[in-house]
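Q: What does the assembled structure look like for these inputs?
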Amino acid sequence: MTLALVLIPALAALLCFLIRRDDLRRGLLIAAACAHFGMTTASWVNKPAAALGGWLAVDAGGLIFLSITSLLFLASAIYAIGYLKREPHGKRKDFEEGVLFTNAPEAVFTACLLFFLATMTLVTISQHFGLLWVGVEATTLASAPLIYFHRHDRSLEATWKYLLLCSVGIALALLGNFFLTQAASDPGAGPLSLVVSDLVTHADRLDVPWLKAAFVLLLIGYGTKMGLAPMHTWLPDAHSESPSLVSALLSGALLNCAFLGVLRIQQVLNAAGLGAFGREAFVAFGLVSMAVAAIFIVAQTDFKRLLAYSSVEHMGILALGVGLGGDGIFGAVFHAVNHSLTKAMLFLVAGNILALYATKSTARVKGVLRLAPASGVLWIAGFLSITGVPPFGTFVSELIILKAAFDKGSTAVAMTYLFLLSTIFAGMAAIVIRMAQGEASERPKPAGREPLLALLPAAALGTLVLVLGLYLPPFVNSALHEAATMLGGS
Amino acid sequence: MNISVDTIMLLLILTNLALLGSGQLGFCIRVVSVQGIALGLLPVLLGSGGWSIHAVILAVSALALKGVVFPWLLFAALRASDVRRETDPFVGYTLSIIFGVAALALFIWLGRRLALPLSADSRLTAPVAFFTILVGFFLIVTRKKALTQVLGYLVLENGIYTFGATISTQQPWLVEMGILLDVFVAVFIMGIMIFHISREFNHIDTHRLARLRDWDEVEDSEEQDQ
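A:
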């Protein structure tokens, strides 16, 4: 069954190329998403057996990230049905520059979506560092054509940057893997395999300088993919130019997968007694990412780039949480869940706003609440959640990370963290509230009733974050704690 | 055995310097192809691998991909894009070669100072691997054409591959094949992208792909407001 989690979406992707009829293919997308979600849910009840000699296994950390990925994919797939129906065929005018462009064939788009799911699943369940690398690189390759769905010059530029920067970054992670192999090649007692549990059990046999070098390379490599500043430069472009449902997946699911990659190496570092070395790097990357995001959020004029920089910020918060250790790790894993749900919701709503106003400029969108009340309410709710306002789940997880900073006695870190959070809150509030309120001056399209398929997924995700903030179900709580303990937290 | 590994290392050094010093895109692709063939032979020549089935299959697939398939793909992209066939460097060729020689000297010196993993076959492998990685980075950063950036990526990948072949323990079968597959798909998609870039912009100069940024848009909207 572990293997099936990867194989079912991959096979469905191949089938997409054979199916000629659009509605059948969309049906297949939903069916595959439902099947994947069903199997993931079943994994909560019954842990599936490991496959490929322990290389593929669903552990506590992997299960949480797998569930987020699966849930977001289901939501995006449902959104995709309405989205693909609304997308016109043939040439049309680009709303920003007036150039003519076409879409990529829908079969390619759907197939790449499903491949993307398969590769992300591979990342979340692989226990072997080599296989993990193969998975992370494959996610880049599967998602690059998704960013280039609207075939115009801006999306092309974004795709090229994404492809090249991430490939080079991940190539560094490959070098890190080789360093790790070298660290694990105990000349006395024979080499260790690169399976995480093996490395953790025999951590005392690892060669320390090589392990440190491997950690640095893996952190930079996967950190590029995760969007940690200063390696984040591909992220705003890719997120702003891709279709909104793809942005939702990139931001909500893919960044987490890369985060899991760096968590795995930190796990080995902890076992080898070098945890402090890794945590310092995490704190530094975390604060730098938040600061960079704050600067770009305050002066942002494009609402999809705004959300993208907010992802950089939240990846920074995750890194900070891991770096602080203790309760911070629990906070980081919990925050990863909250952030994914919220950010996916926001991107889906941004897609609705974009469809209505045909502009990404924050200055030209006004009166969303009046023109499209449902989207407007979701937009405001998403904003409140992403900036960590109670009673949303993000508030709880951000508070836990703050507490971890005070627990550790690093008041300076805590103060910087609070200052950056409030700056970002103010910056986003000014933009989002201006967009939501007021009269809609320009009305490019007559506002009809908003399509249900475009609202339901976002509303469902938003409700989940709200619920997580009010009541954390015991089974989720214990899974989060188990994951945090595995990663060296308390 | 000793001589042949050293020969390959020498070939790597020469191909790297040739890449740094040449402006012809077609020539650069051929040089990368030679480098790929040389690397393909590495697993069977190194002591740890030998002529086992594992090493032979790996060598054959690496040789076929790096030596034949990638150059072929890149030539196809070059033909389709119909661009001026020069690499357009930001840094001149002579300066690039001087940089290369200096970097090589540095790595060989470092290789003697540090306890780098030394393969029994040659003292050169680890320094040359790092040198190749650095040349790859240098090509990506200093050359303007999208195609040269892909070449740089391949050279970077070759350097990492050399390092991987050098260290004593081998990666498992599945992982090695997965890595090759990923690199193959990466080059394939990059080739397609080059084709699209040339069609969309009539050039493949990446430094002119600069529409997406934050601050310019601010100025744009201010102009519109006025």
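Confidence is low (pLDDT under 50) at residues 217-226 of chain B.
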